[in-house]
Protein 1
Amino acid sequence: MIIAGLGTILFILLIMVIIRGRFYRTGCGALILHEILLETSVVAIHIPLNILNIHSGHRGFFTPRDCAGIHFPFITTLMITNWAQFSLALNRFVATLYPHMYWRWVTKTAIAAQIAAVWVFGLVLTAPPLFGVVGTYGLDKTWNNCAILLHTVGPYPKIVGTLGVYLPTGLLMVLYLIMFIRLQCCSPQRVQNNQMRSDRQGQFDRRVKMAKLLCGISLWYNACYHPQNILSILRVPMYEQSVAGLQLWLRTVYLCGYVMTPMFFFSLNKDYQTGLLEIIRLRVHGR
């Protein structure tokens, strides 16, 4: 819970910097703000509730009726977050390699469509159990934690995992890999001569730096998220038996994957550093 509290404070500061500096008006700013708001809800609400559910499940703290309101928003937000990260990667891909087409991706209609698409897709993936289709949200009998209880053994969990986690993660990594290979093959000077006027070199450099920042965040997030999937695939006995200590440790590692996001922004981006220092200075002087 200490990590969640620290992460919430950092995310609130990051949101304040974005709004105060009006970074949401930039090409990918609205998408970044959307992603940050999603991750803030995960750190401040969903994961703490999930950890509380794991820790107190055997005490009967939650009832089956509570699970629809706890587990459904949790996994839906995770699915939406994964696709929102892919949307950001696609934005940086186009901005960096196809700047002449970029304006089409940052119109208000295009941004709204991208945000709406990830929400619709996330809801379509996780809503069926909410209406009793393929299963329901309830308490797992293993140790009384909220989960999706399937009516019959079927492919639904694999479909959700593939379309909500592995597909956006895989596509995201492919986009960043292609982008950085292209940048290595074509120096910034060459890209400038072929695609951009010389007076836009600074803008190109900022786009590349933001792409590297977002790629670093995605790599760290996936490094913290996938240990539980690896343990599941390897069928580690402690994971299969749902040992509470291991589950809590995995949730803590997963939480750290989110908490580092504001730290990436504040440590690797000068604009966000300046915005943070300005907020701190105003608070110190009581303005």
Protein 2
Amino acid sequence: MASQLTRSLKPTAIEAVSGVIASLWAAFIGFELADHDVSVLGIFSVVLALLATGLMIGSRVQDASRSELIKCLEPGCNTQIRVWHTSNADVTRLRELAQDHSKHGPAT
């Protein structure tokens, strides 16, 4: 049976920084909305949306920094494979697939 890759529950530096920035951003906007007599429910909704957006952006940046984009070497071929959370054997197999144009044919 193939081993499962596990993810640590400890936040990375990117997650921690994005969490702090999202929190500060949400707090600032929340205080600004409170100054303009926006309802508590409205402020709560906006703050939650800002926190979720900030944390999602941080998560996507982290995934992008840990991923590898493999492209076909054939001129004019648009085949690309992005890998992350993948074993070395799978990365090698996917690299061979992406870089050997005869194995995947032209991308559309």
Protein 3
Amino acid sequence: MAKRLEVLNMDLTYMQESLAFGYLVGDFEVSWKNLVWPLSSTVWVQLGIIGLLFSGLLFAAHHFRRRGIIRDNLSFLDGFAIFLGIAVALPRNSFGRYVFGMWIFHSYLTVTAYNSGLVSFLTTPYEKRILRTFKDLLDGGLEFGGGTFHREFYNDPSDPDMKRIYDRFKVFPINQALRLPTIHKIATGVLTSTVRVYNTDHRDNASNQLRMLEETAFTFHVPIYMRRGSPLTHGIHRYASHAIQSGFVDYWMRHYYRPASTFTTKTPSVLTVNHIRGILVLHSAGLVFSSIVFLGEIIYHKRSVGQH
């Protein structure tokens, strides 16, 4: 290597590479919580606040009305029925009709936005295993290993996670370590460019993609090798610098690694029990709650009859 450095000039770099643990995508699943995913948590909180404001307006209209205004026996359950698309008797006074009109308009827009994204969340699977940090790798139960050079990077007694990785790191021959993620499903050191090329070649198979940890082992710059004293060195350095500064290299990398547009015949997705688990869970909870309320009404009615 020292003799090569005497001949080659590596002053100019054109690309940044990172070495980190890479692993093959795990199994996919459709979570039963997919019913709440079409709307973000912020939107759900806002809907709750708006529902409380609506209930407060109904309470104020019911208890603080002026004389001569028709009294309406409406409650929050009537507003919830409108939200679900169930017809209820509208208020008879002007204030109640105005409040209910705004609530109907708000409910229609919210339900339309929710239904427009519900089917995609019912049928879109998600990865069961997503590893981003060294701690995720240690707690994920996935084996990892590679070459001796990669293992020595984690020999840091001051960092508990790094030391645990070093102790559990399995050393493999270099020719075998490069194939660990795709053949043995073991996490090993991979380069950023390797992951990009592999995922581009397997873009039609989502279950055969590589992922990298966000915490990298180290980052380095890839140089342009030129022979020292070559008359072409100055010109290549100048034009390479212009290409890097103008963003051409980044554009070329994105263009090269972008998925190719293919025209394939898509088959319709069949809804299975896994897709509608959230609906079944919600329906079962509603049936249990309805049964409890029904039994409570029977017990309350019998006790009331017995007392009279």
